[in-house]
Amino acid sequence: MSKIVIFNGSPRMDGNTSTILKMIERGAKEHNAEVEVYTLFKMKFMACQGCFGCRLKDDCMVNDELRKALQKVKEADAVVIGSPVYFMQITGPVKNLYDRLFPLMGENGRPRFGQKKIVTVYTQELEDPHTFDMYFDYLAQGMFPGFGFVDEDRIVCVNGNNPETAENNRELKQNAYDVGRMLANINN
Question: How far does the signal peptide extend, from start to end residue (predicted)?
Fold first, then answer.
């Protein structure tokens, strides 16, 4: 059984990012995956303190709700991270999440806990789904490998200022469901 951890980095619990992540979750669960979902805007957690305690141990020293979620990431086969694009970037809580993933990185930027598939979900107002490719590629190629994340897929929802865009897009929802199903079957 695949273990999947989903992080929702949107402040809107019923917006486009949430809709897409719920479809991924549904696709994974309906295909027998174990899924943990964390909504960053509902969690109490601190930013990375730069203490480097995780260099001495393989765990974050900040004892908060995110630390518990990071334990699940270590055991996971796949991670899904969703964020709206605000001011041409991911949301602040997702930036903090990425900083707090530092304990996953070992010596010389190599992953400590093996490789895991990662799927990213982005929602944006602009109509061209490739508008922020350079930024998304920077995250995928510059940061993810050190955490052990293998970039599996990226879903971009456009026209995101309408909170029902994803809900009304059958193709997008089917794609998200199929991604969940694919993640559920990565160990088969």
Answer: none
Output the pTM of the full model: 0.96
How many C-beta atoms lie closer than 10 Å to residue 133's C-beta? 13
Domain ranges within the chain, ordered by starting residue: 3-184
CATH T-level fold of 3-184:
Rossmann fold (3.40.50)
Query: Which parts of the chain have pLDDT scores under 50?
Result: none
